[in-house]
Amino acid sequence: MAMTPEGKVKAKVKKTLDMMGAYYFMPTTGGYGRSGIPDIVGCLNGLFFAIECKGKGGTTTALQNRELARICVAGGLALVINESNVEDLKTLLLRKQ
Predict the structure, then answer these.
(1) 3-state SS class at 78
(2) Where are the beta strands (DSSP E) in 2-73?
(3) How far apart are CA 50 and CA 42, in angstroms?
(4) What are phi and psi of 2, to 5 degrees?
(5) I need a surface site. Which of 13, 15, 30, 76 has the fewest CB within 10 A?
(6) Which class is domain 5-96?
(7) pLDDT by residue for the chain (97 residues), tens digit each?
(8) Is 9:35 a contact under the CB 8 Å cutoff?
(9) Under a CB-based contact definition with an 8 Å cutoff, are residues 60 and 54 in contact?
(10) CA dihedral 49, 24, 51, 40 (to 10 degrees)
(11) Pairwise CA distance, residues 70 & 76, whole Å
């Protein structure tokens, strides 16, 4: 079964987070959680982060933008990672610390 472009981005993000020793999980709402929650939520060296993964040309929804903004206001790091910036993830996480 072929992986979607977004799935490839998620795999690269998880590989990077594993190499960095980050704690993370991928929340699934299943109709019970709040809509717009980012794909990956975690913590690295005391830094709370949330990552919305997108394939080529993918854009965030209004609900996703609301949740990413709420995370920033609360002092966390909210990132949108796609095929063009997935290689920069390590730098983005380390820069915030």
Answers:
(1) strand
(2) 23-25, 40-44, 47-53
(3) 6
(4) -75, 145
(5) 30
(6) alpha beta
(7) 688 999 999 999 999 999 999 999 999 877 777 889 999 999 999 999 999 999 988 999 999 999 999 999 999 999 999 999 999 999 999 887 6
(8) no
(9) yes
(10) -140
(11) 9
